[in-house]
Amino acid sequence: NTWSHLLAALWFTAYAARFASTVTSLSSPGAAAVLTYLVANAFCFACSTLYHIFADHETADVWLGLDHVGILCAIWASSMSFAALCRGWPSSERQGSILLVTAAALVCCMFLFTGWLCGSSGRSVRVSTHVVMGSVAAVPALRYWHLHTAGHDTGFLADFVAMTIVNGSGGAIYATNLLDKTMEKIIGVSGASHQAMHVLAVGGALLYTRGLMRAYSQHDTLDKGRPI
């Protein structure tokens, strides 16, 4: 659990620094969206690493809160960057989608800190909160798909869907403890569902990053081709 997210935190931090140092203008909407996504993922994986290293797993404390705020930030940034960089839909739709997922993220953060974070009820609160946030975060992609059916260019929708499937699978495995008993019997490893969720979270983030950077490259090329 610790190593997978520590390495991911270092990778996203380095990628964000490299991107910030090479991009022409960080004030452009596309560049800002990409950098926000990279920083949000670095923050998410760093918070998870700190929680697993330092936190007392028996009580709710600041580390657990930061861990789950980090997850919400990563979900928000994925949806926000998708809305910001997908081409061919009205600016009002784009801005509305970003406002929707931002509002949902803020509400979910407040809900996390007003509910119980630990124990069986706390686990249910956390899982439910992330399910709600993930569902809202998928709304821009669903709307974009609806607007671009019938063979039109769907941008990097496939990358967003791939990330959603991978991360959703990890979340489902964790929520149901699907692998715990089986893997403990086979190889004697406890908490296999939690570990699988961590690995899939990293995999989903990397999959989406690849599509996001490709979309940014196309977006940047189009911007440079527009007359001033």
From TrEMBL:
Keywords, alphabetical: Membrane, Metal-binding, Signal, Transmembrane, Transmembrane helix, Zinc
One protein family per Pfam: HlyIII
GO function term, MF aspect, one: signaling receptor activity
Compartments reported by the entry: Membrane
Primary subcellular site in the record, as a coarse category: membrane
Signal peptide: 1-16
Protein name: Hly-III related protein
